[in-house]
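Person: Please comment on this record:
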Amino acid sequence: SNGGSPNATVTITNDGSSDLNASIQDRDPENTFEQPDWVNVSAGSTGQFDVEFTAAENFGFVELQLEPQTGEGAFRIPVVGVVEDRNVSFDRSELDFGTVTTGEVTTSTVRVENTGTVPTTFNATTNQTTNFTLEADDSGTFRLFPGEGRLLTVRSNLSSTGTTAANLTVANASDTSLTDNSPRTNLTLKATAEAPDITISNSEPVDVGDTPVNSTTSTEIEITNDGEARLTAELTDAFNETEQQNFSVVGARGVEVPAGSSQNVTIGATPQTATEISANLTLTQINDPDVDKRT
């Protein structure tokens, strides 16, 4: 890789009857390769020496010449070095989700590209998995060819108000110390969460008043959102099975109240006998971070 210094070992066999003592000459004005000046191999044995390639360019070539002291049998050894550059970059330096609502999942995408010279396997991770996660298909390893890109889908799900930041890191799956002249392996993730604030404007208990048996009288429950984000709640389980004999929600089975606004929920009371009846209206799955159920 660029900036690395790999070694190659040269093995020489001396099939003669006398020791080999040879100088090693090179024609390498850039000093891309380094090797010893001499090699000594006993008669009938083998010897080795290392050639080190300093990867300053994408390609290097040198021809080593071994010259025995006897002046006989000089021969040449060609040496080649090729740089494998493993790099990766994002198409931006920050992924800002903007303003989001607490407890709600928001998704966004960012493109990552293999800017190196060889196919490489990468992995992607976030350092705050509570607030920012990757889609399942993007959370494992993936392989990119040089110049190939891939979209990563990131999910934000903030539980508290305010601005939260984290890092998304894409790295070589086998070596996280990627080398690039200007790598952007880390991407800043940011989101600012706002929360709703639910209030029931009616005084409690809410009195429907006198109603004839088997007749229905309706009343309005006012739900106010004093927060800074949209309020949602469910009314599918507003009354239990016994209460449903006398009370019901009229119309929509859920509420959605913009910030700073109110919405009325209509409740119908239908007594089955001439007696006082009562029930608890329950709102569930409220996206207010301070309360997920309100009775």
